[in-house]
Amino acid sequence: MNEANLDAMLITNPINRFFATGFKSSAGALIITKNDAWFIIDFRYVEVARQTVKEAEVVQLPSEKSYNDAIESTLKEHGLKTVGFEDTLISFSAHKEWLEKFGVELVAAQNMINDLREIKSREDVDNMTKAQRIAEKSFEEILPMISTDLTEKELTAELIYRMLKNGADDKAFDPIIVSGSKSSRPHGVPGDEKISKGFLTIDFGAKLDGWCSDTTRTLCVGKPDEEMVKVYDTVLKAQLAGIAAAHGGAKGADIDAAARNIIKEAGYGDYFDHGFGHSIGLEVHETLKASQISKDILPVGAVISAEPGIYLPGRFGVRIEDTLYLTEGGCENLTKLPKELVVL
Helices (DSSP H) in the chain: which residue ranges? Predict the structure, then answer.
């Protein structure tokens, strides 16, 4: 805030509020200055907020006022004239209303929050690992259920149920469970059709205490043919090459290239058209990228996915995904599921 010459930062996005306060709610506004902070919250949440939020004054929203009324009053009361805001997350109409109502200079400052959220503490990573273990346990529990008598949607429902039963607060995202020729769709949608023979993609994650996990495993229902084995082995080799290149201070594009070159050399370069990975944290897709077009230098403490794939349209696809915590000299793989091809 000093570097940006801000009097205050206004945070209204639920995930950014949780990042700053440790308190989850569907409403609220946080105003931070260099010396003070006020968390404005309505009566539905105020009791728990006062127990949870330790580094800001919890202010109950008066029943006759809107959040914008309370924000305006706080800014005026404390003489705050230059206010940072989450420019990539609020609507055009909200920005217009704020300009007219608050009478302050609004400064685009979401990148300030992004920069802070990019780097995870050891405690953050430990929490992400707990979510990862729940997801892995749930995945292992559904393996014996998989058969051509089950639909993709039914298997998806079983996985979500197991994650919740094993302690997750929620799924991190809608699982991608697609089989047979549909496995060539990187973000395919589970359908009512029975699980087909061939490759079965399962991309899933659990959410615990706000933190997300993200994993993909590709299984084979029935015996794979020679090309299927070649494609699987190529993706695994590419993933391992990308993981070997991943460390704090590495360029995202260089990590991607280490994996992509393996796939190109095997003759499948045209069939890997997404990035090697993305950062993960309180959201399953955060701002850092390890891709061909990325200009990011990934800092020590970033957590990224490692998920190369090969997708042959109308035939089959393979993706293998782990989660990496970047360190000074390399990375720590948070994913413990085995990666050899499982044939069911």
Answer: 14-21, 46-52, 67-77, 92-102, 110-118, 122-142, 152-165, 226-245, 252-265
Between CA 255 and CA 245 the distance in angstroms is: 5
Q: Are residues 91 and 212 located together in one domain of the fold?
A: no
Domain that holds residue 318: 122-333
Domain CATH code at residue 18: 3.40.350.10
CA distance 43 to 51: 14
Distance (Å) of CA 328 to CA 161, 200, 202, 245, 331: 38, 36, 31, 12, 8
Q: Which two tokens stand for residue 183?
A: 């496995």
Rounded Cα distance, 155 and 139, in Å:
10
pLDDT in tens, 112-162: 999 999 999 999 999 999 999 999 999 999 999 999 999 999 999 999 999
The whole-model pTM stands at: 0.92
Predicted confidence (pLDDT) per residue in 175-230, tens digit: 999 999 999 999 999 999 999 999 999 999 999 999 999 999 999 999 999 999 99
The partner residues of 325 in beta bridges, in order of sequence, read 303, 332
Q: Are 151 and 191 in contact (CB under 8 A)?
A: yes
